[in-house]
Specification:
The complex is a heterodimer. Chain A is an alpha+beta fold. Chain A has 8 helices and 5 strands, in the order ααααααββαβαββ. The longest helix of chain A has 15 residues. Chain B is about 55% helix and about 10% strand. In chain B, helix 3 crosses helix 10 and helix 4 packs across helix 5. Classes of the chains: A alpha+beta, B mainly alpha. At the A-B interface, helix 1, helix 2, helix 4, helix 5 and helix 6 of A face helix 1, helix 2, helix 7, helix 8 and helix 9 of B.
Chain lengths: ~220, ~200
């Protein structure tokens, strides 16, 4: 989707504001949102691409005004409701009354404390162990397709229609565009593609500089 | 902090408390697991992990070669694996090339080696500017790169996560791996800073 989360190349956000000796979390509630999001993710009802897409669907003005963990909270509530784990009425009732009655969830296995180290160390590899012939090889000239899907995509607006060169073939990976929409992993090759800064940003950019993006085969055509 | 801010956060706190109690009561999350997740990312996993990787690469040429060829495996040699570091690539700074890492679409970041990202890395300003104005951004961070240095910006658009291998600063000959690791900063491994020589660090 052509959302406001696709920020690359935008102007007007001012300088990057840094904080010396920044803590990992700034508020107690941020810790809880972080952990709730990870723990709920381990229920296996949605994948990481769906979680990213949930946050992207926050209305644009709200997205820009929200802090990072406010976006996570918004996305988590949305995922829980969309996947039928809680109802909007339960959420609403619990905000008003901390002892509001709830229906226990059936057939779920929550993440246990003793499993945490193991599942984090294992991670969730997005590489897929299937052999597929690559359409491109390092050194190939490619052009990023001019696509504007209304669903999730990892093809930023600023490279669409731009020419680059394949730097590296990472092998076969899950395709986020379909994976996020519940349409399957559609495994395909993932490539690092190098774009000249001037191809992306015009003659004011440095002639030496480059931007590298990891792009799926379905995003690319031969140039 | 303005009253508006305080109200906003107390409203969020309430919303988060309600959500957590609801999920616990429904049996969807285990509070002990939540505490364990928080403890892991607040205390155990952080840029000190990445600093050990960098220091090892500085002192061990064979390790550096493995790191640049297959970063995921080389980083796993030091025990750092898993979530948001499943597919690692390390890019090397040299006198001719400076690397900078960003995620313009969300805030992808190599958790096992750097921990959770700082607020500025997740900010709209950084995500917007890193790709279009990397040199201006680096100047704000105090790094004025000469024109003849190539800037390479890595936009983390898929599940590959990037770590910058900074240049080893002068004046560190004879330092131990542990001493070297103490010099390496998070910002240098994102690519918004150089690793300062030890003398400069003492003055700072």
């Amino acid at each position: 989707m052509n959302g406001v989360h696709d920020l690359g190349g935008m102007h007007g956000f001012g300088p990057v504001v840094r904080e010396p000796d920044e803590p990992v979390f700034h508020h107690a509630w941020e810790r809880r949102v972080f952990a709730l999001t990870l723990a709920a993710g381990f229920l296996g009802r949605w994948n990481l691409d769906m979680a990213r897409h949930a946050r992207e669907r926050m209305p644009p003005a709200e997205y820009l005004a929200a802090s990072y963990y406010e976006r996570w909270l918004w996305g988590l509530e949305r995922l829980l409701v969309e996947h039928g784990l809680v109802t909007p009425a339960e959420l609403e009732a619990r905000r008003r009354d901390p002892r509001s009655p709830v229906a226990p969830a059936a057939g779920v296995q929550p993440l246990r404390a003793e499993e945490v180290d193991r599942v984090l160390a294992r991670g969730g590899p997005a590489a897929v162990a299937v052999e597929l012939p690559p359409r491109f090889k390092p050194g190939d000239a490619v052009v990023a397709r001019n696509l504007h899907p209304v669903g999730h995509t990892r093809l930023p607006r600023y490279v669409r229609g731009r020419r680059g060169v394949v730097e590296r073939d990472h092998g076969v990976f899950v395709f986020p565009d379909t994976h996020a929409m519940g349409a399957g992993p559609q495994p395909q090759h993932l490539y690092t593609v190098r774009f000249a800064a001037r191809e992306l940003w015009g003659p004011d950019a440095s002639p030496r500089d480059h931007v590298y993006l990891d792009l799926f085969e379905a995003y690319l055509d031969p140039a | 902090m303005s009253a508006g801010h305080a109200d906003r956060y107390s409203e969020i706190e309430q919303r988060v408390r309600a959500l957590e109690s609801l999920l616990v009561d429904k049996g969807l999350v285990d509070p002990a697991a939540l505490d364990r997740l928080i403890e892991t990312y607040e205390r155990k996993i952080g840029p000190h992990n990445g600093a050990r990787v960098v220091a090892r690469a500085w002192v061990d040429p064979a390790y550096k070669q493995r790191l640049l060829a297959d970063a995921t495996a080389a980083i796993a040699e030091l025990g750092y694996t898993g979530r948001q570091g499943e597919h690692m690539v390390v890019v090397e700074n040299t006198p001719r090339v400076h690397n900078l890492v960003v995620c313009t679409l969300c805030s992808c970041y190599p958790w096992p080696v750097l921990g959770l990202p700082p607020v500025w890395y997740k900010s709209a300003a950084y995500r917007a500017r890193a790709v279009i104005d990397p040199r201006g951004l680096l100047r704000e961070f105090g790094l004025d790169l000469p024109e003849d240095v190539e800037v390479r910006v890595w936009d983390s658009t898929a599940e590959v996560r990037y770590l910058v291998l900074p240049e080893r600063p002068p004046g560190t000959e004879g330092m131990s791996e542990e001493e070297l690791a103490a010099l390496v900063t998070r910002d240098a491994m994102i690519g918004v800073a150089r690793v300062a020589p030890p003398a400069a660090r003492r003055q700072a």
